[in-house]
Structures are given as C-alpha cells and as structure tokens.
Amino acid sequence: MPLPKLLITRRVYDSVLDSLSGVFDIQHNQEKDEPLTKPDLMQKLADKDYLLSTVVDRIDEEVLAAAPGLKCIASGAVGTNNIDLKACTDRGIAVTNTPDVLTETTADFAWALLMATARRLTEAEQYLRQGQWKGWSFDQLTGVDVYGSTLGILGMGRIGSAISRRAQGFGMTVLYHNRRPAADEASARYVEKDVLFKESDFVVLVVPYSPQTHHIVAAKELALMKKSACLVNIARGGVVDDKALVQALQSGTIRAAGLDVFEGEPALDPGFLPLSNVVLTPHIASSTRATRGAMMQLAADNLLAHAQGRALLTQVA
Ligand code: DGY
Questions:
Q1: Which residues are catalytic?
Q2: Are 51 and 306 in contact (CB under 8 A)?
Q3: Quick one: which atom of ligand 1 is closest to the CA of 77?
Q4: Which single residue of 4, 59, 81, 155 has CA 20 to 30 Å from 285?
C-alpha cells in the first residue's frame, strides 16, 4: 500500500521528521525553509492527504479547493485565524492546533515585553552600545514601576491566566476582560473593556484574532488609557490598529508599547521604527527550542493519530 502523502510547509526538527517517516510519504521544506507562496502551496497540496502547516500559511477556500484529497491539517500554532475552519468542516477535513504546550513560554514572553517597556530595556541598551553613556545620574532613563501596579489582561484564556499568575509575584492588581467572566478566575477581577483600558498601568492583549476582535484596540481605546500606561500585544496583528498606535506613541497618548505581532507581518508600519518608546520583536513569543519542539511534535502526533485511526489529540474542526 502506498503511504499517505504529507506536505510539511516549513522546516521541523529532525526528531519530528523521524517520527513521521515510515508512516507518510513526506514532501518537506527542510533545506530552504522559506514561506510557500499561495500558488506554490496549492500546487504542492494537489496530491496530498495530510498537511503540517504553520501560522503563516493562509488556508482559505481556494487553497482547499486545490487539495481534493486532503483529510487532516495539523497546524503548528494555537491560533487558527489563518485557517478557514468552517470551509474545512464543510469539506470533511479535520484540523488540529497546539494548545497548552506553549502557554507558559508565551506568558513568560508577555512578561519580557512588559518589563522591557516599563524599564526601557532596548532603549537603554542602544544608549549604551552607541557610546552615549557618560556616567551615572539620578534621572537617567527612568522607567515606571511594575511592582504594585495594575495589570489589565484582554483575553483571559490559558495564556492570559498564566500571565495573571505571574503578576501575583509582582504584587499587582489584575483586571481582565473577556466576552464573559471566566468561571474559575480567582487571581483577577472581571471589568468592562473601557474600565480595563482606563485603570490599567499595563494592558496585555491575548485575544484570538477574528472579525469580532479586528482593531479591538484603536484610537478610542488608546485615548482611554493612562498617559503613563504601556500596551503589550502578543495576540495577533490586526487586533490593534497599528496606525492609531503609532500616533498614540508619537503624541504621548500612552507611554510605551511592546509588540510581538503586527498587521501585515512580516511587514510592519514604518512609523514604529524611529520610536524609542516601542519594543519590537518578530513574532517569537512561543519561541524557545523546547516549546517550538513541543508544538511541532504535537502537530505530528495529531497526524499520526489520524493516519492510524486514533482519536485526534487537539482537534479544533
Ligand atoms: C500561535 O501558536 O498561535 C503562535 O502565534 C505561533 O507562533
């Protein structure tokens, strides 16, 4: 019997590839590891039964139509906004994602951005590297205190909750907003969205991207924030109106931002680049070797489960 055909769109660790070989006839991208263009993805998927994709592969109706034999998509990400889940269900294609394995690592990174914005970490490092440091002074590169301040979390899911738990060590008051209050959230207080923006010293965005959360943070929300407040986005580009954010950072509407995701990434609004009050990172919140490995392996394990007739581990459609 010929092996089912699998496309892996980006480079994965050798151990992950090894776990799949012998079960699948694999077309991979180990050497180049470049994102596939849409026509390339469609052409490569034409004869495939399985797909191991990433957050940057856009899987829409047109792509699915080009893959008549596709049975299961294992996405190596927790967010699924790049996949048309309804179209997959309509076509009988199962979809899995990678929850849980990245929760703690991603929460750590939200904190890295929060601390970096509060204490002007990248700005201070550049100051030093560029030879501007001529000696100590009382008001040099002063930041704002994290300890004892108020943290607002927009999107209290698994990652939001892990961020909130860390805030206890910093003696923070934690507010959160969700579509509805979380039943078992003891470490944080549910508030209306506007209250969250008004009262928080740090606002961290962890909501999934959807038409409902598109530009959920725009000029109106930024204007509600304290002038001394910092915004951290580890959710998705598109959750924030980046143009409005550039303006808010330029005009001092808010103090600073820490951004791991951008509208239209890998391109980003050029207005961010000259600003010293924004910390910019290239979508790496889940990027530790262990966590990225766990994400790839969970995606692979879902494919193995499907091919071997076992229940999927983390099915979303
Ligand atoms: C996710 O898992 O959704 C992350 O954004 C991938 O890096």
A1: 236, 265, 283
A2: no
A3: 2
A4: 59
Please report, rounded to a whole number, the percentage of residues in the chain having pLDDT higher than 70.
100
pLDDT of residue 184: 80
308 and 90 Cβ atoms separated by less than 8 Å: no
Taking the CA of residue 80 as reference, the ligand 1 atom at the shortest distance is 3
Task: Using most ligand atoms within 8 A of CB, pick from 10, 55, 100 the residue to mutate for ligand 1.
Answer: 55
Report the candidate in 157, 134, 130, 120 with the shortest Cα–Cα distance to residue 258: 120
Give nearest CA residue, ligand 1 atom 3.
79
Pocket, ligand 1, Cβ cutoff 6 A: 55, 77-79, 102, 283, 286
Question: Considering the entire predicted model, what is its pTM?
Answer: 0.97
Specify the pLDDT at position 186.
82
Q: 253: CA distance to ligand 1 center in Å?
A: 29
Å from CA of 129 to ligand 1 middle: 32
Task: Tell me what the mean pLDDT of segment 100-105 comes to.
Answer: 98
Q: Structure tokens of 170?
A: 């910093």
CA of 203 to the centre of ligand 1 (A): 20
In our burial notation (b when 16+ CB lie closer than 10 A, e otherwise), range 165-197 reads ebbeebebebbbbbeeeeeebeebeebeeeebb
CA 312 to centroid of chain Cα atoms? 23
Q: Is the pLDDT of residue 185 over 90?
A: no
Start-to-end Cα distance in the chain = 28
CB 303 within 8 A of CB 72: yes
Ligand 1: nearest atom to the Cα of 78: 2
Q: Whose CA is nearest to atom 1 of ligand 1?
A: 77
